[in-house]
Amino acid sequence: MIALYIFRQCLKLRSAKEMFLMTNLDRRSFLKAARAASVVVAASSSGAVRAFAGDTSTDGPFKLPPLPYAYGALEPNIDAQTMQLHHDKHHAAYVKNLNAALKDHSQLASRPLEELLVKLNDVPEEIRMTVRNNGGGHANHSMFWEIMGPPSGTGPDGELKAAIDKDFGGLDGLQAKFNAAGGKVFGSGWVFVTVDKDGKLALVSKPNQDTPLMEGGRVLMGNDVWEHAYYLKYQNKRAEYLKAWWNVVNWKAVGDRYAAAKAGKLAI
Ligand code: MN
């Protein structure tokens, strides 16, 4: 589809004279150029190209954070195409829509995201659901990219490990409860582990793009169980995605978030 679009754009850009010549004499080189364009598109979808920030050109205070690793870095657990679409299209759209909704509300737009989300009642009713969905989506995905990374084979350690042992009976217990909760989300939503200022952990599921931030909570980690997060590779097998996802949890990043939460410095 994208190749076809580029093909058509090439067509539009050609002068009438070139078009005349092409349509009569030069179809072969035109088709060659179109094939080259489709190769570029294929290469950029393969994960071979370093992740870029996607559509960050939207006006407004909220920005799409760059993916901190290549699209293909989480293979084979999460495929490169899913990562590219998820970050560059889905997350980018939440940021764009959030900025657009707050375009004429500069005071609200200047708030930190976590403050905007915990005070949704301050947002005018006509844009409140848009801010809730897209602001929640922006917060959730920003957290999501951060707590994943290339499979490292390591697990939680230090204070984080102690908390998981205490509140979930160990990593196996956390994974079993988390995956069961992920399987039960009806439709689109998220499963989170929340952390309070004393370092206590809890499991919370939310529909849509809602987040514990909306109740003033803090998210240690979470997994996206919207179909767009896994359907290309796993189709209807959400349980397999939930299981494989643990291979790409970046425990160093989760540990850093745990320490930040206890220090009262974890934002989104
Ligand atoms: Mn998502």
> What is the tally of beta strands?
3
Radius of gyration based on Cα positions: 22 Å
Integer tally of domains = 2
Structural class assignment: mainly alpha
Q: What top-tier CATH class of the largest domain fits best?
A: Alpha Beta
Q: Quick one: overall form?
A: globular
**Which fold name is given in CATH as the topology of the largest domain?**
minor pseudopilin epsh fold
By DSSP (H or I, 4+ residues per run), the number of helices equals: 12
Write the CATH architecture name of the largest domain.
3-Layer(bab) Sandwich
Q: What is the chain-wise order of helices and strands?
A: HHHHHHHHHEEEHHH
Strand order of the largest sheet: 2-1-3
Q: Strand fraction band?
A: 5-15%
Distance between the termini: 36 Å
Q: Flag low-confidence runs.
A: 1-57
Whole-number mean pLDDT: 85
Name the CATH superfamily assignment of the largest domain.
Iron/manganese superoxide dismutase, C-terminal domain
Small molecules in complex: manganese (II) ion
* Major pleated sheet: 3 strands, antiparallel
What this model shows, in words?
The chain is mainly alpha-helical. It has 2 domains: 2-44, no CATH class; 81-268, minor pseudopilin epsh fold (3-Layer(bab) Sandwich). It has 12 helices and 3 strands. It has helices at residues 2-13, 16-25, 27-45, 80-101, 106-109, 113-118, 125-146, 158-168, 171-184, 231-234, 238-245, 251-262, and strands spanning 189-195, 201-207, 219-224. Strands 2-1-3 form a 3-stranded antiparallel β-sheet, with helices on both faces. β1 and β2 form a beta hairpin. α8 crosses α9 and α9 packs antiparallel against α11 (238-245). The longest helix has 22 residues, at 80-101. Residues 1-57 have low confidence and may be disordered. Bound molecules: manganese (II) ion. Residues 86, 90, 141, 224, 226, 228-229 line the site of manganese (II) ion.
